[in-house]
Design goal:
Number of strands: 7
Low-confidence stretches: none
Largest sheet: 7 strands, mixed
Helix content: 10-25%
Length: 149
């Protein structure tokens, strides 16, 4: 999981003008993070035993884009006048980077986004934010961990 999260972070850092961070919770945004931002959250790791001491894993990773609530619909659709990305633009950029990207990780066989929530409003009286949660599933085949010792 650690290798995958680091690879995802490095890949997403290539999206221009976006801060990328690993987060302990889907709704947690560190104070020092500049927006727009993308959080990366580890998810479940479902395993099944294969033949000859091998295993298959389906690793789930949550990708959480964040934008400031801007004038009217700009936080959703973007603002052509300022060039600011809306949540839909940021989600599309994430898919371009991550869809079917195996990061040259040994045994990784597929990368696919299985779901994406609608945008939601979060924040307080000081600042309103919009985010959504994109779920990616990574299929991995390899030796069981007991053989790595």
């Amino acid at each position: 999981m650690k290798e995958l999260l680091n690879a995802i972070r490095t890949a997403l850092e290539g999206i221009e003008r976006v801060t990328v961070f690993v987060t302990p919770d889907e709704n947690f945004l560190p104070h020092e993070v500049r927006l727009p931002a993308i959080g990366i959250k580890d998810g479940s790791d479902r395993r099944s035993e294969g033949v000859s001491m091998t295993m298959s894993s389906t690793i789930e990773v949550k990708i959480i884009p964040w934008v400031k609530l801007a004038k009217d619909e700009a936080s959703i659709l973007g603002d052509p006048a300022s060039g600011e990305m809306g949540i839909i633009d940021l989600s599309s950029a994430i898919h371009v980077v991550l869809d079917d990207n195996l990061f040259s990780i040994s045994g990784l066989e597929s990368a696919f986004s299985s779901s994406e929530t609608g945008s939601k409003l979060l924040g307080d009286e000081r600042e309103l934010l919009v985010n959504k949660v994109i779920t990616y599933n990574y299929e991995k085949e390899g030796d069981r961990p007991c053989l790595s010792r």
